[in-house]
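Record type: monomer structure entry
Structure origin: computed from sequence
Chain ID: A
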Amino acid sequence: MTDQSTPKAAAAPASSPTRPEAGQAGASGGTGVSRRRLLGTAGATGLVLGAAGAAVGYTSAPAGATPLTALGAGRAAFHVKHQPGITDPLQACGHLIAFDLAPGAGRKEAAALLRRWSDTAERLMAGEPAAHGDTDVARDAGPSSLTVTFGFGRTFFDRTGLQKQRPAALDPLPDFSSDRLDKARSNGDLWVQIGADDALVAFHALRAVQKDAGAAARVRWQMNGFNRSPGATAHPMTARNLMGQVDGTNNPKPHDADFDQRIFVPAESRPAWMANGSYAVVRRIRMLLDDWEKLPLTQQENVIGRRKSDGAPLSGGTETTAMDLEKTGRDGSYVVPVNAHARITRPDQNGGAAMLRRPFSYHDGFAADGTPDAGLLFICWQADPLRGFVPVQRKLDRGDALSQFIRHEASGLFAVPGGAGKGEYVGQRLLEG
């Protein structure tokens, strides 16, 4: 967890819950009218989804049918410069799943799998059924802002004979003092991130991806997450985590002048197949909520360095007011404690290191003693993890007040190539280069 978290556009106003589109052009998986008949919804919701309109179901809707709400009509494009699911607004439901290639499977089988996965992702993100064996789970729903994102782990290159194409940025992450890592739920040859604003749409995609793996790959681990639903708040606001804290104030914004250079691999990069891609660090961070919730409000705020009510820094102002790290109280001590999480994670306290955090919360039940297994599926994006995640986590390791209330239980690092061009599949430039 850091103070540079999820994009601010996590929710839309209740009066206009429309989700912004993430690159309309080229999103449809084919020509003509899809089986999910597309109807315009501008009159009902104010959302215009291009000439095709908004997806409303697998079969043609009768004239005068009530169009989908904006929640179901939200649609992200598959064929984009950067893969979907990185800069898109947070979705309400998420699934993370890692695969290992099956024994005997190599480069040829991996290429066929990525081609299948890309075709399925394009179809489902456009609100269409999978090409083969669709389960009908999402039959009545629109795309619901579904995104499917693919990445490669370090071991993928060994299994496919592509070691020379493995980026140096995939070198193993160092050990950290807060790590209690379960190797069975860490890393993997292939990684898929799924997000949607409807739980059935998200599960539909998860099941399709798993079925498409066939004999080529087997599931290594899988995790489920959630966020606040779009439109659940009276106005757009930064997300909250399961500690009740506003979490995401200082996330890099796409309009920042240095956003691309911090988050995405430059076009002239080496290896060339990673151009316009990014690196995802994935951590399952368990929150020790029983201990946290025993703290008085003032102590919770001192641990974070921000007010719990509105996310404003303890030095004063509103959520977006710059934190005054030199401000002191009557006793001469810093108003924002020296070990406060928000102080330690600031880019200007870490040589400019920054990452785009796009996490999901999770809850996996209760232990026999009632202790909740809950926390954060931490996902951060950066052009180079050795300049993004690693220096910040090292700094946290040396004295973050929050560290006694969290435990890192799983970890993964994945190379996520740029988006696939029309007619391409994700990773084609690596596997066929």
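Annotation 1: The two ends are 37 Å apart (CA to CA).
Annotation 2: The chain has a mean pLDDT of 87.
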